[in-house]
Specification:
heterodimer; A: 59 residues; mainly alpha; 2 helices; B: alpha/beta; 2 domains; three-stranded antiparallel sheet; 12 helices; globular
Chain lengths: 59, 329
């Protein structure tokens, strides 16, 4: 688990080879699934325009 | 729910749905217990939306399948895995519901209807992760969502778990998925979505641009925002978490006015605190309101057990798999 001073991107970069392999697995699997299915994504939230309650991107 | 409540909601939702894809999820309790005719009557006022039901499947028969197909309803099944993992899912008579659930799923499959599944995992045992995953592959769902049991609403059981064990569970689940990626796992998708954004230099775009108010409308028309689990609850500081009722005020007005409610303001303070203190914020976006409230009794606090079980340990588990396996599955 990261300490506050550690950076999440650094953790990802350290495992980049394996993560890229997982992304490729996903891409390969998605290609098959998306041709066969228009299934919903369980629990995924969709929304149109909403009030700007909170800007997650503010810095 | 009365048709009047559905009409009041649809009056606003139809306007939104004309501009962007909009999903209406019939959830909470057992939506199919309303009966086919009544649920259809509740859906009738809506135009241009995509309907979902989240159901335990026990009532699904040929007639329900015909309704789902005719209205293009997306079906989500609540099932926790093989029979021994479903002890908490019982009929009103207190009998195990597993056989009735799987019968309903079989009807869906016979009718060629796709479905997703959501499983509550009370004991995230790494040794059982692969079996759990393969059960859902065999079940035939398209997408699997894993909810590590949460302490919220009427469920007061503490969800403080051994983070190392939970991380190992996610690692084992990732390994099982990678060996046989026949279905999507919502949580692994979320991690990989963030990873891809980070590697592509788009990490700032991973979280949505604005907060999703995610309104929940109760059967009486009361509206609760952000966390459906807060519906029906109140506390001495904030009073009821309902922001109003759609039979008296339109949904757009309720959402706009709710931004100034004290508990929402407290929650926004809490999100700021998460941003300032948690190295996982870019992935998580801040602890969910219901988890803050039911675990800690406040909205302006930060890390919850839900954060640890279903965000931090999740990400760490997937990364651990990647770190130890590299390019080899």
């Amino acid at each position: 688990m990261l300490e506050h001073t550690e950076q999440l991107p650094d953790r990802l970069v350290a495992a980049r080879t394996g993560l890229e392999a997982l992304l490729q697995t996903r891409a390969d699997a998605r290609g098959d699934q998306e041709r066969a299915s228009a299934a919903p994504e369980a629990g995924f939230r969709h929304w149109g325009d909403t009030p700007q309650w909170y800007d997650w991107h503010k810095r | 729910m009365s048709v009047d409540v559905a009409r009041a909601v649809a009056g606003q939702v139809n306007i939104w749905a004309a501009d962007a894809p909009f999903d209406v999820i019939w959830h909470g309790g057992e939506p199919l217990s309303a009966g086919r005719e009544h649920l259809a009557a509740l859906m009738d006022p809506f135009e241009g939306v995509r309907h979902h039901v989240q159901t335990n499947a026990t009532l699904i028969d040929q007639a329900w399948c015909e309704l789902f197909a005719a209205r293009d309803v997306r079906v989500g099944i609540s099932i926790d895995g093989p029979a021994e993992r479903n002890a908490a899912r019982v009929s009103r008579a207190g009998k195990p519901a597993f056989r009735a659930i799987t019968r309903g799923i079989e009807r869906l499959r016979e009718c060629g209807l796709e479905f997703s599944a959501i499983a509550v995992v009370s004991d995230p045992d790494p040794r059982g992760a692969a079996e759990l995953y393969e059960f859902f592959v065999g079940l035939g769902c398209i997408v699997l969502g894993i909810n590590i049991e949460e302490q919220e609403g009427v469920n007061v059981r503490r969800n403080q778990l051994d983070s190392e064990r939970v991380t190992e569970f996610w690692t084992a689940l990732t390994e099982a998925w990678r060996r046989n990626p026949a279905i999507r796992v919502r949580e692994i998708e979320r991690v990989l979505g963030y990873v891809a954004a980070e590697f592509d230099g788009r990490a700032d775009e991973f979280l949505p641009r604005s907060m999703d108010p995610f309104p929940t409308v109760t059967h009486e028309g009361d509206v609760v925002l952000l966390s459906p689990e807060l519906a029906g609850f109140a506390d001495v500081t904030h009073g009821s978490f309902a922001v109003g009722n759609v039979l008296r005020t339109d949904l757009a007005t309720l959402i706009a006015e709710a931004a100034g409610q004290r508990w929402v303001t407290d929650f926004r303070t809490g999100v700021d605190a998460c941003r300032a203190s948690c190295p996982y914020f870019a992935f998580c976006g801040g602890a969910q309101p219901a988890n803050r409230f039911f675990e800690r009794g406040r909205f302006d606090v930060t890390r919850t057990h839900h954060c640890e079980n279903s965000r931090i340990s999740l990400l760490e588990g997937v990364v651990e798999h990647a770190r130890t396996h590299g390019a080899v599955a």
